[in-house]
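Throughout this chapter, every protein is written as a compact record of paired, labelled lines. An example of such a record is reproduced below:
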Amino acid sequence: MSAATAIAGTALAGTAGTAAAATGGGCTGPATKQACVTLIDDGGRGGDILFEARSDWPGAGADCRMRLVAFDDTTEWQWERELRRCDRPLDYHYTLPNPTAGHRYRAELQILPNGKNYEFAEFVKSPVLTY
């Protein structure tokens, strides 16, 4: 189990608020590189947070790698997907059940042009969603 997975399990154990209203969120970036965070209405329980990263960038090159990272900026919790090639279509999703009222969530598409480290990395960050 990775540290990120263990931290995610801890974050999921929080108590959900009752029908908390969300403000902000949405998508940032062009269609070729986009990060989104939205509230999914679940019919009265309060909703879940949906993190998304989408990309369609065939000219990126075979060395380039990218991934979705979900953040709770209030607690510094983060969850990340595995790295995928940039030159293939990407449509990653992660749903956070039972978000915590008052917390600030965002999605990030991390693009590593050389595929190995953060040198020359690009970060496409969604607008912040406050739950």
Remarks:
- The mean pLDDT is 84.
- The first strand starts at residue 23 and ends at 24.
- The chain has one domain: 3-13+20-130.
